[in-house]
Design brief:
The protein folds into two domains: 2-113 and 298-358, Rossmann fold; 129-270, Glutathione S-transferase Yfyf (Class Pi), Chain A, domain 2. It has helices at 36-48, 123-126, 129-143, 145-171, 176-216, 235-241, 243-249, 270-273, 276-297, 315-325, 340-348; strands at 2-11, 14-20, 25-29, 67-76, 79-88, 94-97, 100-101, 114-117, 222-227, 260-265, 268-269, 303-307, 333-337, 354-358. The chain is an alpha/beta fold. The longest helix is centred in the middle third of the chain and has 41 residues, at 176-216. The strands form three sheets. Strands 2-1-4-5-6-7 form a six-stranded antiparallel sheet, covered by helices on one side. A five-stranded parallel sheet has the order 8-12-13-3-14, with helices on both faces. Strands 9-10-11 form a three-stranded antiparallel sheet. The radius of gyration is 23 Å and the shape is globular. The chain is built from eleven helices and 14 strands. Bound molecules: adenosine-5'-triphosphate. Adenosine-5'-triphosphate binds at residues 12-13, 30, 32-38, 59-63, 308, 336, 338. This is DNA replication and repair protein RecF.
Length: 359
């Protein structure tokens, strides 16, 4: 599928703006602050009904205005699809597909498969484990609708169990039976989520490794691995064995809400020991792996948004990325860059049609 036309009304720095896009490569070029990332974010809105960068919806309305409208015309298997995302201050976000309003925005997810690569992805390396779990959950849930509900139900149970532990501590009381009810449910859900994460990583890790190898052009010893307390023992045992600890801490210290993805180079955390270019390559490989994984799950090729990805990468790595996206298994691509000449010289090496859009 590809986006043919985009129209923006009062979206961030754009008052009214129309864009026509190439079915393959689109380069958005211009100086800092002209709105290149904003255009990518508006396309992200059409896929996920929200911003990738700013979760406060009112802040996506152009300053001084009351509403925004983003309208995209897609071509999907020779049929046209019109997706409109709009928001008015004080109201609810409205997402429409071919004139029909969605009851729930989540029902739209998957209609426009899309992967974004942006400088803010570095949070995946630098921030806490919740960011990495969210990434993993996002990719798994693309192909498994029940998975996200399991994760939400599990999180609710953990909150309830934590509240009970706090209640016990505050009231100097304890009731093993009521805690046991939570433990049983957490064990059932947590085990199911754990098994799905393990199975996912078995498929995902080699795809990631292959992408990294192409981007780095060699055999840098990077490793991505899943780490869970459930690797050591079943969750029911962990909850039982850590009961005294949990009572002191007044929260649930064991479970899949503590899972993490280890990102290493030469056996050491890439966060501390990877160069900026290596970290960036790692993140691009992660996102390209997400793209490949998603492609196998959805009908039609996902759209790829590449926000400012060439910065900090040497010529070789840029060439390798270009050769990767030049292969048939990538669909429509949007690239933002401040250097019009660099971008054009780069995309010219791709033997595909392209549009250069100056902002
Ligand atoms: N709600 C808003 N109303 C008006 N302008 C906004 C709003 N939100 C963001 N902007 C403006 O959008 C601009 C930033 O746009 P964007 O991040 O897309 O720039 P860019 O072209 O990607 O820049 P860079 O090359 O620095 O990454 C800023 O000038 C900012 O003030």
């Amino acid at each position: 599928m590809h986006l043919k036309r985009l129209s923006l009304l009062n979206y961030k720095n754009f008052e009214t703006r129309e864009f026509e896009f190439d079915a393959k490569i689109n380069c958005l070029v211009g100086s800092n602050g002209v709105g290149k990332t904003n255009v990518l974010d508006s396309i992200y809105h059409l896929a996920f009904g929200k911003s990738y960068f700013n979760p406060v919806t009112t802040q996506n309305i152009r300053h001084g205005e009351e509403f925004f409208v983003i309208e995209g015309l897609f071509e999907k298997k020779d049929r046209e699809e019109r997706i409109v995302c709009s928001f008015k201050k004080g109201g609810k976000k409205v997402l429409k597909r071919n004139g029909k309003v969605y009851d729930r925005i989540s029902d739209h997810i998957g209609q426009v498969p899309l992967v974004i690569v942006s400088p803010s992805d570095r949070d995946l390396i630098l921030e806490g484990s919740d960011v990495r779990r969210k990434f993993m959950d996002g990719v798994i849930s693309q192909s498994d609708k029940g998975y996200l509900q399991d994760v939400l139900d599990y999180q609710k149970l953990v909150s309830q169990r934590n509240a009970l532990l706090k209640f016990f501590a505050a009231n100097r009381t304890f009731d093993a039976d009521s805690l046991e009810v939570y433990n049983d449910q957490l064990h059932a859900l947590g085990t199911r989520i754990y098994e799905k994460r393990v199975a996912f990583m078995v498929d995902f890790t080699p795809i990631f490794a292959a992408q990294y190898k192409v981007i780095s052009g060699g055999d840098e010893p990077v490793q991505l691995s899943y780490q869970s307390q459930l690797d050591a023992a079943p969750l029911s045992d962990l909850l039982r064995d850590n009961l005294e600890k949990d009572r002191v801490l007044q929260y649930t210290s064991q479970g899949i809400h503590k899972d993490d993805l280890n990102m290493e180079i030469g056996g050491h955390p890439i966060k501390k020991f990877g160069s900026q270019g290596q970290q960036k390559s790692f993140l691009i490989a992660l996102k390209f792996a997400q793209f490949q994984f998603m492609k196998a799950q959805v009908s039609g090729m996902p759209v790829l948004l590449l926000d400012d990805i060439f910065d900090k990468l040497d010529e070789d790595r840029v060439s390798h990325i270009i050769s990767l996206v030049n292969q048939d298994h990538f669909g429509q691509i949007f690239i933002s860059d401040t250097h019009a000449e660099r971008t054009e010289a780069t995309v010219k090496r791709i033997h595909q049609t392209y549009a250069l859009i100056a902002l």
